[in-house]
Amino acid sequence: xxxxxxxxxxPFCFNFAVTTSGTPEQLTVKRRATTIAFNENTASPDTITxxxxxxxxxxxxxxxxxxVSGSGSNDGTYVVDxxxxxxxxxxxxxxxxxxxxxxTVVLTAPKTVPDGIGVTVKAKNANTGVIHMGYSSxxxxxxxxxxxxxxxxxxxGLQVDNINRIWLDASVSGESxxxxxxxxxxx
Length: 187
Description:
Layout: E1 12-17, E2 25-26, E3 29-33, E4 36-39, E5 47-50, H1 55-58, E6 65-69, E7 76-83, E8 87-90, E9 105-109, E10 117-123, E11 131-134, H2 137-140, E12 148-150, E13 155-158, E14 167-170, E15 176-183
Antiparallel strand pairs: 1-15, 2-14, 3-9, 4-5, 5-8, 6-7, 6-9, 7-8, 10-13, 10-15, 11-12, 11-14
């Protein structure tokens, strides 16, 4: 079921990890890995592959505006046609240069939040530190003291129009959250 132009299913869930403690990041669908490769498929739509099969868990979906950074020749923005765990197929008019995996590549896709949908951010149970949340990089910084914090297995519900308005930091590098989009209950 969906009430979005780009078919965001509700409920929808993805995982997000803060890369480096002390360096706040905007909340978005993200995959950062050295296992990502790019394929120019002359007669077929071009593809991005992940030998670690992390695209679905990261939350990528058809219709996403996918931004690539860290690859060099393929840095830019593309439109996703289809997604499996290990392959993102781009729209047929999108063009890549073949590039082997090896460099650390970051793929991101912002997600808007439709009316009537709430966002829950839950700190993973395995976290050993604290997740800091704010409305800017400055307020989310784990040393700023102005952020809202959640310990492991705690969550907070938010109402925002785009999840990239939320910034996250962690007291321990690599700590993660689960982000869940759910329809608000109507009384």
